[in-house]
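## retry 2 of 3
previous attempt timed out at serialization; input unchanged, resubmitting
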Amino acid sequence: MLLANLREKKKIINNFSKSTILKPSVIFSVDDNFSCRLLNLLSLLPIFPLYYNGKTKFSPIHVSEICEVITSVIDKNICSDIIECVGPEELSFKEILQKLLISINKKRLLIPLPTQIAKLSAFFFEKFPKPLITRDQLRILKYDNILSGQYKSNIDLGIEPKLKFEHEILKYSYMWKEGGQYSK
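## retry succeeded, writing output
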C-alpha cells in the first residue's frame, strides 16, 4: 500500500509538475467524518472494537489549521512539493476514543478485535450504504498517520499547530451528551 501511494505521488508530480500534495493526518472539526462519526457510534454502542489494539498513532489537525496551510501554499506559491500536515499532538486510536468518551461522559468497553474478525466484519459492513468500516479503512488503520520525516510539514512552513483535539472536541461534543446543548 505504501509503495502504491509513492507511485501515485510520482505520477501526480510527473504529470503536473507544479502540483503540491498535502498529506494530512486526521482532520477534525464540528462537522467532520471522523470525530462526529466516532461520537455517534460511541454514544450508541456499549462495546467498541479496537482495531490493531488501538495502537495506531494519529496527529489530528483541526480544519482551520489545514486552511492555513492551503492559504500559505497559495500565498507563497509553493510548487512541486509534498507537505505533511499534522496537529500539535500524537494520539493513539485508543487515546482518541478515550478522549471522545470523556467528552460525552460515557463509559464503553473498548475491546481489541482480532484482525481476521475485523476483516470479515468490514467485508460485510461495506455492503451497507453508509458502512461502519470498510476493508480499505481497516488497511489504513494499520499504519501510523504522523510525521514521517520524509517531507516538509506545516511546521516547516511556519504554521505551528495549536488546536488540541481534546479541547476542540469539547466545543461540539455536547451534542452527544445526555441533555444535548443543555448538558453544559
